[in-house]
């Protein structure tokens, strides 16, 4: 639906005409007193789910990334790295959104509470009932894992949005966000009608560009509806790109909407980037993103080298309990890893709950996480398999 | 890179006592196989095999292991330079002054010992140098290893 | 003869050449850039660029001695000097330099796209106002033809171009900066080691045994070093780009106009958009290297390109106006009988054919010629061309900062081998009255242990193993010693001396038939006295601060040769001192106000040829105590402005 491209460093978000073509009609029956409050608290819950959704894909991406042997697969490494960095950025922007509507983003904090489900138990489904047929694993880089990744980022073809948000299922992350955005717009309109706003002015809680740098693109803070729309467009744009329309609208030759690749375009949606890795070649300038195009929406450009064997074959979905019981030698290293991971979640939690300055202190932890993960992946545990990072929250 | 071969295993275990790092640390570098290869290829095979046999014997006497290593691998001219080279290789990633591979440079134990990272790799991130390293471990006590640290996972 | 008519031909794609090319093409001039090094190094396609850089990095990892040039190819058709080749003089057989002086000249440079900035450290302090008037103030050396104040606007341009991170308000000459001036980025955090060291120095300053000179107490002052590596952007920094303003006939720093690479034009910033300085990342990916990530390998290579290098400037040039020819080594400029005009530049190309290297000699012409091949190569080209030398000063006055290194063990761990090479310097001896008598110095605190003089930590492991340490004892020893290493280096100002010079001799040539530099080099009592003075201060400081001194000069290797052949003894003394080269190669074609005593005028145009400009550190009449590149770049902007005025 939206796709993002960055031309010579100047980013532009290009939105096809049908993005939110039908702006939601304000629900007249929404009584600002009772229904409204209920809906708002529901929205906050949904936003927390969005946060969990953004986070849930990071450990699988990291496993694939770190499993690639150093010095090999330069392009896949660059591509996966850029995707993970964007996911981290999305997570923080969702936290901004939560703060903006007066909620409380819970990252590390949630794992300390009763409802410890911020960190998925891999193998896992995507949070929020998104594409329940999909299982995500902590596993190494392979054709199979790349396919899983593009399914995660898969544009939806089904344009029929469910009406009731919370109880429903979503075909894709994009649909999830579209429903979310509709809810935000509806609620804000209802609030506006009563001379109020769901957006709190709490700039101190917002993580701003100066707290975050580098890859992943621009960080937006959120203070009003316009910002909220911007953030969601950015998230969806980076993830899926053209979203449903490449599957749902008929192909027209030369439609510029689908000619989104080329030398000037520095980044495009994750979905397409994973396709490039899978097919071991870049999109060419005249490739179309549409699946009914002559190139079938697949990349036909310059080839690059992918060595699917230059990988640490980590045993999928490692757990601390398993190591403790069956491989006590590995356990201390796995525990160290989990401690670093937990410290990192706590750090982000702090940053998103009023201490944005501490975010930069998390960077050494992020690097440490990587080095510890790779150390684990170098340890053989029998049957030709390697140990791996245990993404578990511990204290 | 399984340490299933008996010789590799002996090499790994004696390396633990030569370097002061445990098996997981050494395996975690990912260098075991290629270092073992260097030892095989850069030396007289007969000498290597004697070295491994001696090491195996020494490893059987863990309570006195440091004394044994000193007497039999370090003070003995036969093995002295081989042993020193092995230590250098784990710490610096070099054999006789030559870097074994880009990875061997990066995986040198000396960087761990100094609580830092190899220059140009494993960067710790912006501003990290302003604070003490996040990896500071308390110094390891010097004591003879009390019980066998075996590779439980293979 | 080529028939394309260029406005300007630039020789060399180091910082001086690249910034010149960028500035001129953005002002609409047609430029030919000749570069001696390999084409791969200048790949402006982002994937090609990335792969090439990964090659550099792997070469570095594999290098046994990780010296400044270790990541980069050394080409026999355009060789670079290597610090590993430095040996006692005379020496003709080893490396690129032919050394005929009393002492070997020990600094290197890199011939390749991007030039020496690929392996520079990136420290960018300005020179102090007094540095420009050494004759007037201290009765030594010469005055510059311009003052510090005249250079200030160009300093500001240079600081934008490099992207300097620093705190202007604490610099020693802060009151001479434009009022309220800020650097583009906030200061690079000072290292934990710096903090430990500063605390020790502070105690000494305030304690019972402060450092004394001639029985008088001196306070040792430390400052954070401004540097060209990416840090947190400074929201107060207002400037966007440097732009040629044709109406005012000068270069200006813009606050609302920005260079759009896409439209190849300066454009007005969207009024709604709040401008904030954006660090310039890696050439292959603007998102990489947005901050210094603490790789601690700035010299020889910054893996993420958080450190400035000249290719970043080149990437901003107007490609449509720029022709780059690589593997093209300039050997001569041509001039007519009266010599007032340069009429062409001769360059030799080498190309890797199927089984042999193919050579060609080409002449290119333009209205204006700019030599930006660095101090040594510029001098060589001029001497080979018999150009610009009516003053007989070409090649003379070769200078460097003479680094007196001192090293010791801190009482507590400071955890070196982390962060950029240096983040703090001792600044209180940069301009004192003693300059009448001996060199002033700046003294950076090094963040990388004893790596420079001792090849730590490798030598520490080696020594410990030789002492039969092994196992936990070895490990504990290393984790005790390495984190306590402290290294200081006193960078002493060398004065110009016409006998320290670069020349050419027909018998010494490289594979292409170009001359190798023949160098005569020595240091004078003025500098040697500074070694003694600096060492005296250092010894008191170490003692009072509880830093265990390990400094040793005159060490020999297994063959009985001096490990570092740059050894001197002060007059009437038995002390010996070693000094090391700083890589600050300065002074071979100095600027001045008199045509008979200098090579270029204050606009960097040669006195002899009104269309030949020289840029680079060769122009600097004296060195001061600052790393020279920032000042040199300021002069480069001045030269660019003069050229744009002319055409
Ligand atoms: C280890 C080290 C650390 C340093 N650290 C600092 C620091 O912290 N701060 C500082 O201010 N300075 C530092 N310097 C000095 C700094 O690197 C130089 O002053 C600066 O890079 C010089 O730039 P340049 O453009 O004049 O020359 P160079 O960078 O040397 O570029 C010259 C260019 O010309 C090309 N060339 C040469 N000959 C020919 C020819 N005949 N034909 C065509 N092309 C040719 C070369 O290939 C090269 O691209 C350091 C130097 C070294 C060695
Ligand atoms: S410390 Fe590292 S990241 Fe920073 S400039 Fe130096 S090499 Fe680059």
Walkthrough of the structure:
The complex is a heterotrimer of chains A (395), B (154) and C (647). Chain A has 395 residues and is mainly alpha-helical. Chain A has a single domain, classed as Ferritin (Up-down Bundle). Chain A has helices at residues 34-56, 58-67, 74-100, 108-112, 143-152, 173-193, 225-240, 245-248, 270-279, 320-326, 331-351, 362-377, and strands at residues 3-7, 10-14, 380-382, 385-386. Chain A has a two-stranded antiparallel ribbon. A two-stranded antiparallel sheet of chain A has the order 3-4. Chain A is globular, with a radius of gyration of 21 Å. Chain A starts with a strand and ends in a 9-residue tail after the last strand. By secondary structure, chain B is mainly α. Chain B has one domain. Chain B has a two-stranded antiparallel sheet with strand order 1-2. In chain B, a hairpin with a 2-residue loop joins strand 1 and strand 2. In chain B, helix 1 (6-19) crosses helix 4 and helix 4 (45-59) packs antiparallel against helix 5 (65-74). The longest helix of chain B has 16 residues, at 77-92. By secondary structure, chain C is α+β, with helices and mostly antiparallel strands. Chain C folds into two domains: 5-187 and 226-401 and 493-523 and 579-646, FAD/NAD(P)-binding domain (3-Layer(bba) Sandwich); 188-225 and 402-492 and 524-578, Cholesterol Oxidase, domain 2 (2-Layer Sandwich). Chain C is built from twelve helices and 26 strands. Chain C has helices spanning 15-26, 46-62, 134-138, 148-162, 192-206, 310-314, 375-385, 451-454, 458-466, 471-481, 525-545, 629-646; strands at 6-11, 31-34, 98-99, 212-213, 216-217, 222-224, 242-245, 250-253, 257-260, 265-268, 322-325, 328-335, 342-352, 357-364, 366-371, 402-409, 422-426, 441-446, 485-492, 501-503, 518-520, 548-549, 567-568, 577-578, 580-581, 612-614. In chain C, the strands form eight sheets. In chain C, strands 6, 16, 17, 18, 19, 22 and 25 form a seven-stranded antiparallel sheet that branches. In chain C, strand 13 (342-352) and strand 14 (357-364) form a beta hairpin. In chain C, helix 1 (15-26) packs parallel to helix 12 and helix 4 crosses helix 12 (629-646). The longest helix of chain C is centred in the C-terminal third of the chain and has 21 residues, at 525-545. The radius of gyration of chain C is 24 Å and the shape is globular. At the B-C interface, helix 1, helix 5, helix 6, strand 2 and helix 7 of B face helix 2, helix 5, helix 9 and helix 10 of C. The complex binds flavin-adenine dinucleotide and iron/sulfur cluster (SF4). Residues 11-17, 34-37, 68, 107-109, 111-113, 115-117, 119-124, 299, 329-330, 372-374, 377, 381, 583-584, 616-617, 627-630 of chain C line the site of flavin-adenine dinucleotide (FAD).
């Amino acid at each position: 639906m939206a796709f993002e491209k960055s031309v010579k460093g100047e980013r532009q978000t290009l939105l096809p005409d049908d993005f939110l073509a039908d702006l939601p009609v304000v629900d007249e029956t929404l009584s600002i007193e009772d229904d409204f409050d209920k809906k708002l608290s529901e929205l906050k819950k949904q936003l927390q789910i969005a946060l969990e959704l953004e986070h849930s894909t990071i450990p699988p991406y990291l496993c694939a990334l770190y499993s690639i042997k150093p010095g090999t697969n330069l392009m896949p490494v660059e591509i996966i790295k850029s995707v993970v960095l964007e996911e981290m950025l999305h997570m923080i922007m969702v936290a901004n959104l939560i703060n903006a509507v007066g909620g409380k983003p819970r990252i590390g904090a949630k794992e300390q509470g009763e409802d410890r489900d911020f960190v998925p138990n891999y193998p896992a489904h995507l949070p929020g009932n998104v594409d329940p047929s999909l299982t995500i694993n902590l596993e190494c880089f392979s054709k199979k894992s790349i396919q899983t990744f593009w399914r995660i980022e898969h544009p939806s073809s089904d344009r029929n949005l469910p009406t009731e948000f919370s109880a429903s299922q979503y075909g894709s992350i994009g649909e999830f966000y579209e429903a979310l955005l509709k809810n935000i717009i509806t609620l804000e309109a209802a609030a506006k009608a009563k001379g109020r706003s769901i957006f709190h002015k709490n700039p101190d809680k917002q993580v701003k560009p100066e707290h975050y740098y580098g890859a992943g693109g621009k960080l937006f803070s959120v203070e009003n509806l316009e910002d909220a729309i911007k953030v969601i467009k950015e998230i969806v744009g980076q993830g899926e790109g053209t979203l449903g329309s490449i599957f749902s609208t008929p192909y027209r030759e030369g439609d510029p909407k689908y000619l989104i690749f080329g030398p000037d375009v520095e980044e495009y949606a994750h979905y397409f980037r994973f396709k490039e890795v899978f097919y071991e070649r870049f999109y060419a300038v005249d490739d179309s993103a549409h699946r009914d195009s002559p190139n079938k929406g697949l990349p036909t450009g310059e080839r690059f080298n992918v060595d699917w064997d230059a990988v640490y074959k980590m045993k999928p979905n490692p757990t601390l309990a398993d190591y403790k019981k069956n491989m006590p030698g590995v356990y201390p290293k796995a525990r160290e890893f989990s401690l670093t991971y937990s410290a990192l979640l706590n750090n982000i939690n702090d940053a998103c709950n009023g201490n944005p300055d501490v975010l930069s202190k998390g960077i050494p932890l992020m690097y440490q996480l990587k080095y510890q993960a790779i150390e684990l992946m170098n340890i053989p545990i029998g049957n030709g398999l390697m140990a791996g990072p245990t993404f578990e929250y511990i204290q | 890179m399984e340490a299933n071969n008996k010789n590799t295993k002996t090499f790994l275990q004696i390396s633990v006592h030569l370097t002061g790092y445990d098996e997981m640390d050494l395996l975690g570098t990912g260098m075991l196989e290629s270092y073992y290869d260097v030892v095989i290829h850069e030396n007289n095979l007969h000498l290597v095999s004697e070295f491994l046999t001696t090491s195996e014997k020494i490893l059987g006497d863990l309570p006195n292991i440091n004394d044994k290593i000193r007497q039999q691998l370090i003070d003995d001219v036969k093995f002295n330079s081989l042993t020193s080279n092995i230590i250098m290789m784990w710490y610096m990633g070099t054999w006789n002054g030559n870097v074994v591979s880009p990875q061997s440079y990066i995986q040198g134990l000396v960087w761990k010992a100094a609580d830092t990272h190899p220059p140009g790799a494993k960067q710790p991130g912006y501003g990290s140098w302003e604070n003490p390293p996040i990896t500071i471990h308390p110094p390891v006590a010097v004591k003879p290893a009390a019980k066998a640290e075996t590779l439980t996972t293979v | 003869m080529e028939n394309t008519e260029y406005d300007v031909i630039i020789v060399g794609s180091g910082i001086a050449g690249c910034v010149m090319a960028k500035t001129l093409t953005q002002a609409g001039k047609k430029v030919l850039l000749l570069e001696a090094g390999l084409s791969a190094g200048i790949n402006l396609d982002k994937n090609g660029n990335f792969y090439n850089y990964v090659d550099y990095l792997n070469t570095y990892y594999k290098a046994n001695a990780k010296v400044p040039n270790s990541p980069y190819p050394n080409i026999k058709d355009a060789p670079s000097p290597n610090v590993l080749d430095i040996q006692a003089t005379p020496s003709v057989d080893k490396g690129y330099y032919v050394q005929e002086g009393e002492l070997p000249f020990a600094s290197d440079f890199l011939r390749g796209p991007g030039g020496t900035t690929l392996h520079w450290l990136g420290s960018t302090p300005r020179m102090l106002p007094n540095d420009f008037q050494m004759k007037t103030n201290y009765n030594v050396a010469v005055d510059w033809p311009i003052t510090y104040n005249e250079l200030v606007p160009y300093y500001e341009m240079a600081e934008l171009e490099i992207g300097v991170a620093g705190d202007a308000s604490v610099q020693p000459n802060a009151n001479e900066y434009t009022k309220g001036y800020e650097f583009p980025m906030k200061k690079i955090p000072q290292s934990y080691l710096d903090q430990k060291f500063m605390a020790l120095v502070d105690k000494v300053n305030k304690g019972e045994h402060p450092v004394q000179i001639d029985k008088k107490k001196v306070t040792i002052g430390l400052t954070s070093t401004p540097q060209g590596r990416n840090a947190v952007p400074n929201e107060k920094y207002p400037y966007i780009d440097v732009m040629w303003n044709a109406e005012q006939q000068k270069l200006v720093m813009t606050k609302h106009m920005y260079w759009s690479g896409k439209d190849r034009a300066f454009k007005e910033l969207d009024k709604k958009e709040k401008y904030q300085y954006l660090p310039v990342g890696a050439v292959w990916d603007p998102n990489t290297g947005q901050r210094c990530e603490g790789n601690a390998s700035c010299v020889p290579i910054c893996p993420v390109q958080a450190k400035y290098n000249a290719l970043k400037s080149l990437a901003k040039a107007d490609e449509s106006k720029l022709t780059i020819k690589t593997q093209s080594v300039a050997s001569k400029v041509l001039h007519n009988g009266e010599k007032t005009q340069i009429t062409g530049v001769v360059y030799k190309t080498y190309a890797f054919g199927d089984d042999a290297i193919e050579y060609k000699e080409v002449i290119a012409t333009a209205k204006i010629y700019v030599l930006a091949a660095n101090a040594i190569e510029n001098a060589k080209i001029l001497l080979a061309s018999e150009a610009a030398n009516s003053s007989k000063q070409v090649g003379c006055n070769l200078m460097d900062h003479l680094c007196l290194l001192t090293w010791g063990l801190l009482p507590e761990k400071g955890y070196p081998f982390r962060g950029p090479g240096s983040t703090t310097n001792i600044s209180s001896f940069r301009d004192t009255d003693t300059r009448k008598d001996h060199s002033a110095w700046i003294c950076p605190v090094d963040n990388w242990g004893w790596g420079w003089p001792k090849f730590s930590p490798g030598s520490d492991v080696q020594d410990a193993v030789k002492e039969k340490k092994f196992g936990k004892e070895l490990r504990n020893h290393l984790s005790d010693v390495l984190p306590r290493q402290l290294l200081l280096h006193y960078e002493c100002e060398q004065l110009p001396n016409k006998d320290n010079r670069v020349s050419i001799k027909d018998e010494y040539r490289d594979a292409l038939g170009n001359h190798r530099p023949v160098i005569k080099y020595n240091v004078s009592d003025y500098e040697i006295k500074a070694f003694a003075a600096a060492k005296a201060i250092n010894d008191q400081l170490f003692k009072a601060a509880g830093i265990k001194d390990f400094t040793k000069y005159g060490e020999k290797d297994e063959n009985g040769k001096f490990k570092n052949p740059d050894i001197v003894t002060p007059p009437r003394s038995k002390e010996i001192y070693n000094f090391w080269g700083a890589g600050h190669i300065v002074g071979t074609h100095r600027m001045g106000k008199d045509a008979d005593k200098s090579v270029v005028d204050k606009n960097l145009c040669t006195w002899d040829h009104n269309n030949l400009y020289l840029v680079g550190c060769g122009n600097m009449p004296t060195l001061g105590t600052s790393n020279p590149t920032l000042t040199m770049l300021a002069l480069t902007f001045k030269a660019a402005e003069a050229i744009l005025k002319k055409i």
